[in-house]
Amino acid sequence: MTMEDMTSATWAPLSNAKFNRTIIERGVNLKDVACLPISLGWFGKKEENRRLIKVQCYSMEDTANFYMRPIEGLTVLLDMDTKEVVEVSDTGRSIPIPKATNTDYRFSEQKLQQDLNSVNPISIEQPKGPSFVIEDEHLVKWANWEFHLKPDTRAGVVVSRAKVRDLESGVLRDVMYKGFTSELFVPYMDPTDAWYFKTYMDAGEYGFGLQAMPLDPLNDCPRNAYYMDGVFAAGDGVPYVRSNMVCVFERYTGDIGWRHAESPITGMEIKEVRPKVTLVVRMAASVANYDYIVDWEFQTDGLIRIKVGLSGILMVKGTAYENMNQVEGQENLFGTLLSENVIGVIHDHYITFYLDMDIDGSDNSFVNVNIKRQETSPGESPRKSYLKAVRNVAKTEKDAQIQLKLYDPSEFHVINPTKKTRVGNPVGYKVVPGGTAASLLDHEDPPQKRGAFTNNQIWVTQYNRSEQWAGGLFVYQSHGEDTLDVWSERDRPIENKDIVVWYTLGFHHIPCQEDFPIMPTVSSSFDLKPVNFFESNPILRAPPYFEKDLPVCRPAYSA
Questions:
Q1: Residue 148 burial by CB count (10 A; 0-12/13-18/19+): exposed, middle or buried?
Q2: Which of 462, 454, 464, 467 is nearest to 503 (CA)?
Q3: What is the C-alpha to C-alpha distance for residues 343 and 224, in angstroms, rounded to an integer?
Q4: What is d(CA 2, CA 67) in angstroms, rounded to the nearest whole number?
Q5: What are phi and psi of 392, to 5 degrees?
Q6: Got the DSSP string for 143-176?
Q7: How many angstroms separate the Cα of 400 from the Cα of each of 42, 495, 498?
Q8: Number of Cβ atoms within 10 Å of the Cβ of 133
Q9: What's the pLDDT at 128?
Q10: What is the pLDDT of residues 205-262, one digit of tens each?
Q11: Phi/psi at 17 (nearest 5 deg)?
């Protein structure tokens, strides 16, 4: 969909007399109506040969947070090209529209309490300015890192040609040719008529970058951030600017790069500590109600951390219930009662990343380093068992379809088998998963067929320039015929080849009252970490901080 498609779809129902009549009968003034364009996935042949979209609406009366005031059960099926209303369905006439009370999240609308225990403002000061430079508007150089940065309508932000300088040799070494958010899959867990189709593909259907909003200086990004605009083409080809779409800044939160203090029993008074400063590339997309914050964080030790934060506003369902004591027995609400007449529906988020790794060159291999328990022989040792690492080089794509298992752990290495360290280890990076979730939907469920790229947490494919979008090049109303799952089943050779690693970060979200009326950010991440890439600790020679090196900031009250 283009932005023009989405905008025109939200207004089109107002030209339909039946729709307008229904709105008025539900007690909403037409001037207070706000509508959302909702992709409808694919659920059969009746939806083919037309560009269709569903529209659902809300009441804006007395609040900016209209998402909390759904006109429940009212769904319009619309032809996106002709703007013809194909069908109006209203299954929620008995469900009241939730009240606007306590739904507004704007600071200007909050009733501040006198006893609110506020945190004093904090800012990291850099009297000498930031340590990074950006050349030709896109080439970022910081510490031992260099990479190209580009805003993108579909991916949001693309990091490419990432290289790290080896301080032993002084050589810039290849790490990653290109990395970006390939697709997002957000299925809601309500099979009823007004909800079953809510199984969004936010990048391929809406455009992750198209939904990026200008970042707010001081709050989205700190004082010394650099901002990058996105320059895109509208549906008619006219270029436009998305200002402040990406920011780049240095982060210091008191973390430690490395440390060691020697025990007094050795007689040596040693205390060596190094602070950790990192470089962050950030963008935030507001895909209707939900906000996604994506960080690419670069560390001087060679690690890249990719982090996703979820915030914004829940997509909620209207209900006749005002209290849980009205709910009988084990009735399935498909979510949590958050406030009077408001249910937060259970849903998942999956964010799949495309990672074209080039470890010291384009031809790499994927190694599953399985951690196994080894039993000792009788009389061999006082120990009964220990762990050993078993390295399995993936020969083909099916060998590299990975589902994470807590009790069958592995490390996942991308190595260059032709480049060795001084002592003979192949140079590499490893994918280090963080907290994540796996899809539990039936593989034959139509949404999961389209979102089959979430069937595994890690995939590795042979590079193909046409295979960049995990849900397929054309996602809208697709059947799942052109996904990462389909490509991987070709089982192409991947040993010592130009390969792409795909990693899916997942969240199960059972809403709770703390998510109302707007959600505190919840985050998860994964790392790309050097493994035998350097000859030794690459930040061994990093200097500590001394008082004389830092700015002196005086409290305001003594100024």
A1: middle
A2: 454
A3: 41
A4: 22
A5: -125, 115
A6: TTEEEEEEEETTTEEEEEEEEEE-TTT--EEEEE
A7: 29, 11, 14
A8: 11
A9: 84
A10: 999 999 999 999 999 999 989 999 999 999 899 999 999 999 999 999 999 999 999 9
A11: -65, -40
**Is residue 129 very low, low, confident or very high in pLDDT (cuts 50, 70, 90)?**
confident
The amino acid at residue 114 is Q
Catalytic site positions = 202, 290
Q: Which amino acid is at 90?
A: D
Please work out, in degrees rounded to the nearest 5, the angle formed at the alpha carbon of residue 109 by the alpha carbons of 107 and 111.
95
Tokens of 380: 């061999």
Tokens of 326: 């009205």
pLDDT of residue 113: 61
The pLDDT tens digits of the residues spanning 416-436 come to 999 999 999 999 999 999 999
8 A C-beta contact, residue 211 and residue 287: yes
For the record, the structure tokens of 164 come out as 């790290």
Q: What are the structural domains of the chain?
A: 3-100 (3.10.450.40), 133-542 (2.70.98.20)
Which residues, 6 or more positions from 558, have their beta carbon under 8 angstroms from its beta carbon? none
What are the b/e assignments for 351-382, b being 16+ CB within 10 Å?
bbbbbbbbbbeebbbbbbeeeeeeeeeeeeee
* Residue 511 CA from chain centroid, whole number: 18
Query: What tens digit of pLDDT does each residue of 297-343 get?
Result: 999 999 999 999 999 999 999 999 999 999 998 899 999 999 999 99
Name the residue among 196, 200, 227, 211 with its Cα closest to residue 154.
Answer: 211
Helix or strand or coil: residue 271? strand
Cβ atoms within 10 Å of 193's Cβ, excluding its own: 12
SS3 state of residue 3: helix
**Whole-number Å distance between alpha carbons of 174 and 212:** 29
Rounded distance between C-alpha atoms, residue 432 and residue 430, angstroms: 6
Handedness of CA 318, 324, 329, 332 (dihedral sign): positive
Residue for token pair 């069958």: 408
Q: Find the radius of gyration of the CA atoms of the chain.
A: 26
Sheet holding 335-339, edge to edge: 316-318, 342-345, 335-339
Distance of CA 247 to the CA centre of its chain: 16
Amino acid identity of residue 225, one-letter, is: A
Q: How many CB atoms sit inside 10 A of residue 98's CB?
A: 25
CA distance 271 to 265: 14
445 token code pair = 């469920």
- Residues 157 and 262: their CA atoms lie apart, in Å, by 44
List the Cα angle 413/150/470 in 5-degree steps. 50
**What's the pTM value of the predicted model, to 2 decimals?**
0.96
Provide the β-strand partners of residue 354: 180, 502
CA count, 13 A, side-chain hemisphere, 395: 0
**What's the CA gap between 112 and 123, in Å, rounded?**
23
Question: Which residues share a beta bridge with 52?
Answer: 79
Residue 493 — left, alpha, or beta (φ > 0 → left; ψ -120 to 50 → alpha)? beta
Count of residues making up the chain: 559
